[in-house]
Specification:
- The structure holds 2 protein chains of 2 kinds.
- By secondary structure, chain A is mainly α.
- Chain A has one domain: Four Helix Bundle (Hemerythrin (Met), subunit A) (Up-down Bundle).
- Chain A contains 7 helices and no strands.
- Chain A is elongated, with a radius of gyration of 22 Å.
- The termini of chain A are far apart.
- In chain B, 67% of the residues lie in helices and 0% in strands.
- Chain B is an all-alpha fold.
- In chain B, 19% of the residues are buried.
- Classes of the chains: A mainly alpha, B mainly alpha.
- At the A-B interface, helix 1, helix 2, helix 4 and helix 7 of A face helix 2, helix 3 and helix 4 of B.
- Chain B: It is a multi-pass membrane protein.
């Protein structure tokens, strides 16, 4: 086992710093253990957002009229474009993992760069949406100042949930951008290859989860209210 | 899929040979077709939202979202080819989420239903089944 690892180092190729920690019998088991850890983390994320989805379900059931009225003030075209942007970023992220699997350093760099660009586009569109809401006074709870609503109190609750859910999702996009930058730098240092790409795979899984959550947020908030 | 199974066999041939992790590389067309399917579903869900199906709009939107989520999880996140245990982890979290939201909704949606019944037929704590007061 160690002799094969040393042979790779001697060849001077494919993630020379990579090694199998002594408590793992094989590199496969090390890789799968790390990945299982990521999945457990993703479960905690699902449950974090699950609490917010639950609060949305409760208030929607209580104040259906106010929620439907309020959701018409979200721009479903902007939301739809953001959905497409995130789906494209998921594609480039998945392809970046594939490029790392095939030791294509240049492609990993380009694809991670594209993923970052899509993530930034998402946040820019979100910024325009938010500033439009601020301007119209479509703000959470007691800060809700927009006029012309039949149920301003219920609309205020809708926007409280809207800003909380999309805001925490937005922070996840921001955190994902940080993580992608981190693996982008490590890739530029030549650390990843078909032998070792676990961080790319892990960040990829996280990024897909951020996309998954948006896949549910978008129809619930923008389309059905 | 032929190319896929070839790669698969090749990969595992290597994996048994050495201690190194050898990745399971999927053909490009899987990624591209998944991406196209996700785009199509997004367009469909936005289009459907302009049609009024009443209460069904919510369930149609959730059905399409779940199709999209399954595509992302199975293909982009490789669950289809991954250790089964990772799928069990994900599905178990969704089951608990279902219990959480389902029980909460069955609670909150049925609040206040007991009070009118209690008002019509007030409960005698000392005789909850009315056994000692046959006039009821």
């Amino acid at each position: 086992m160690s002799s094969s690892a040393e042979a790779h180092v001697a060849n001077g190729e494919k993630s020379p710093q990579f090694h199998v920690a002594h408590h793992f019998p094989t590199a496969d088991i090390q890789f799968n253990s790390g990945k299982m850890g990521i999945w457990l983390f993703l479960v905690t994320e699902i449950l974090l957002f699950g609490g917010m989805f639950c609060s949305f379900a409760i208030f929607r059931s209580w104040y259906l009229g106010g929620f439907v009225e309020a959701h018409h003030h979200l721009d479903r075209v902007m939301g739809g474009i953001n959905t497409i942007v995130l789906i494209c970023s998921s594609l480039t992220m998945a392809l970046a993992v594939r490029a790392a699997q095939t030791t294509n350093k240049k492609a990993v760099t380009v694809l991670l760069g594209l993923t970052l660009a899509f993530a930034a586009t998402f946040l820019v569109i979100k910024y325009f949406e938010y500033s439009h809401k601020f301007h119209d006074g479509l703000l959470p709870g007691i800060h809700f100042t927009a006029t012309g609503f039949q149920e301003p109190r219920e609309a205020g609750i809708f926007f409280a949930i809207y800003f909380m859910m999309t805001g925490i999702h937005g922070f996840h996009v921001l955190a994902g951008m940080g993580l992608i930058t981190w693996i982008l730098i490590r890739n530029l240092k030549g650390q990843f290859s078909s032998r070792y790409y676990a961080p790319v795979e892990g960040v990829g899984l996280y990024w897909h989860l951020v996309d998954l959550i948006w896949i549910y947020l978008f129809p619930l908030l923008y389309l059905v209210g | 899929m032929a190319t896929h199974s070839d790669t698969h066999a090749d990969v595992h041939g290597h994996a048994h040979g050495g201690a190194d992790h050898v990745p399971h590389v999927l053909p490009l067309k899987i990624y591209i077709s998944t991406w196209i399917a996700l785009m199509v579903f997004t367009v469909i869900t936005v289009a459907v939202s302009y049609v009024d199906f009443g209460d069904f709009n919510l369930w149609i939107a959730m059905l399409i979202a779940t199709c999209k989520a399954s595509l992302v999880a199975l293909l982009f996140m490789h669950l289809r080819w991954d250790e089964r245990f990772n799928s069990i982890i994900l599905v178990s979290s969704l089951i608990f989420l279902g219990i959480f939201i389902g029980f909460t909704m069955s609670d909150t949606d049925n609040r206040g239903r007991a009070e009118p019944i209690e008002h019509d037929r007030p409960l005698d704590i000392k005789d909850p089944f009315g056994l000692q007061s046959p006039q009821q």
